[in-house]
Amino acid sequence: MSKIVSIGTATPAFCHQQKDIMQFMLDANNPDEKNKKLIPILYHRSGIETRYSVFEDFSKIRGQWNFFGNNCTMPPLEARMNSFNDAAIALSVEAIKDCIKDTDIQEITHLITVTCTGLSAPGLDIQLIQQLGLSTNIVRTSVNFMGCYAALHALKIADAFCRADTNSKVLVVCTELCTIHFQKSNDTDAILSSTLFADGSAACLITGNDASEGLSIRQFYSQIALDGQKDMSWRLSSTGFLMTLSSYVPKLIKEEMKHLLKASLDKLQINQADINEWAVHPGGKNILEAVENALGLSASDLENSYDILRNYGNMSSPTILFVLKKIFENSQQKGNIFAVAFGPGLTMESVILEK
C-alpha cells in the first residue's frame, strides 16, 4: 500500500493582515458606493486573519506600490509570468527541503509538479531538477490548471506509480502564486476571489514501501457537478488569469457532498462513523460550513481546515496538504482520514487515508 511519509510547506516572505489587504482593495478598485459597503462585509466574514504573498504591495498605501503601480495599473500577462518564474522555484525548493529532511535526494524516482498560476516550458519541473541535483532521467509529470483539487489528483498519480513499482519514491510539489493574478475589478465574483487567495507551496513524499511510517492511501473517489461549470472557473487573459468563484459554489457542494462521501465509503465498505479525522479544503468559510451542514459535522471536526484558512487563506492546490500536515504531525488519533478538495468543473476530488 502506498504511503505519504512526509509533508513539507513554505510561504513567501510577506505576511499580510487581512484588514490591510482590504484597505489595498478599497484603494486599488476605487469602488462604487455599493461595493464600498460590500468589500468590508466580505472581508470581515472571510474567517481569514493573515495571508502570504510574494508582493509587499498588499500592506502598503497608494504611492508605495511596486508591482501594481501607484494607480494600480494591471500588469500584462508577461509581467505576471515573469514574477512567477522569479519566485516559484525558491518557494518550491523550501517546501521540498522541509519535506525530505531524512531522505537522500538521489533516491527519488519520480517528480510531480503541480501549479495553475504559472506556465512555461522548460518549467518548474526542470528548474527543480537543476536546483536540487535530481537525476536527469527522473520520471516527471506536470499537473497544470486543475486548481485547488490538483494536489489530490497528483497523489492519485503518485499512488499509481508506487503500486506499479513498490520501490518508487515519488516527490509531489504544489506551488501557487495566486496573488500575482490580482484583477482590478468591481465585479462581485472578482471581489469575492480577492478576499480568499494567497501564495504558498507544499511538498509530499509518497513511497510504495509498506514498512514506512506515514499515511496509507486507501481509496480515491471523484465526481463532477456539471451544473457548476460557470460558477468556478480559471481562464487566461491578456492581464493575467481570471478567477470566477460565485456565491453559488457552497450550495452546489452542500448538495453533492453527501453522495460523494457515501460513494467513497461504500467502495471500502465502511461508514461515516469510521472516519476519525476530516481534511476539507478551506476554499472559503462558506464552503467549510456547507460541508459541515451536508455531513452533520461540527466546526470542531474541521478545526484543522479552519485554522489553515485563518492563518493562510486559500493557496489553491497546496492548501489541502497544509491541512494534512497538521493532522499528520499534531493529531494523536489513529484511523481513517477523509480528505476532499474542490476546483473548476465543479470538480470534487477525495481520498481516504489511514494513520
Automatic annotation (TrEMBL):
Family that this chain belongs to: Belongs to the thiolase-like superfamily. Chalcone/stilbene synthases family.
PANTHER family, A to Z: HYDROXYMETHYLGLUTARYL-COA SYNTHASE, TYPE III POLYKETIDE SYNTHASE A
Keyword Acyltransferase: no
InterPro entries given in the database record: Chalcone/stilbene_synt_C, Chalcone/stilbene_synt_N, Polyketide_synthase_type-III, Thiolase-like
Protein name: Chalcone and stilbene synthase domain protein
Coiled-coil spans in chain: none
Pfam families attached to this UniProt entry: Chal_sti_synt_C (PF02797), Chal_sti_synt_N (PF00195)
Swiss-Prot/TrEMBL keywords: Transferase
CDD domains hit by this protein: CHS_like
Domain annotation Chalcone/stilbene synthase C-terminal: ranges: 226-354
Sequence ranges assigned to domain Chalcone/stilbene synthase N-terminal in this UniProt record: 3-207
